[in-house]
Amino acid sequence: MSDAIVRVSDLTKTYAGGLTALRSVSLDIRQGEILALLGPNGAGKTTLISAICGLVTPSSGTVTIGGHDILRDYRAARSLVGLVPQEINLEPFEKVITTVRFSRGLFGKPQNDDHVERVLRQLSLWDKRDTQTKELSGGMKRRVLIAKALSHEPRVLFLDEPTAGVDVELRRDMWDTVRELKALGVTIILTTHYIEEAEELADRIGIIADGEIKLVEDKRALMHRMGQKRLVIELSEPLDTIPEPLAPHGLRLAEGGHALVYTYDKTAGRTGIRRLMVDLEAQDIALSDVRTEESTLEEIFVDLVRKDAA
Asked: Any idea where the ABC transporter domain is (predicted)?
């Protein structure tokens, strides 16, 4: 793939104790995309990010960033990457602007106050530039972490659980920040436990479990391919049980017996809805309303992980 800025090939990581955290992982990350990496606890997400960022040495396999091998050309590869860790670890008595300037200097970049100002303004931190980090809210501290990661002008940004523990309003502010960074051309890899976050932000979804990449697919294509539609039939009178003649339709009772739910494959040529309606009428079941619902990404993810564990 010619537009891949990060290329992971057959990456394996086995720790000294014998635990294999990554098993022959291959993954191409495209320039300018947002890739959401989903997986249960212990799936290998953090190990994969740590390996790409040069914090963990792979047991085998290769990783290149912008064409630079992370082992043979570590400095060049690492300079292209910004990492925002899940844990907030800031020097409490340091000013925001000093913290960001220092991070830039760690990568050997010359002082560039224009760039630092631009980053702080992008993240709504400019007015807080002379504030000690200990005086900031949790959401503002996370913005400082992002500013630190962007201080050396990376082309790839890893966000490890960027909205963990923040309230809904701050989470949505952070989503806006991520979209703005993408608009500036930054490639973003996002790990999250909030699947709605992946559904909202990602161009592609990667699912990892047991140290293996199970799939990487365009979000919309995945939801179309694996999503199911549900027909929710609201009833004029509640049912205690589903009549036996309706059993072939695989219906389930919902809403305290006030609704029937019919699940079908929206890509199939025949949905079976017409036959269902005929059979409902034959059972003298009166309807008050009918609506459709589609599978969420969370339902697809849970289903995939459950199938893999079976």
From this structure: 6-235
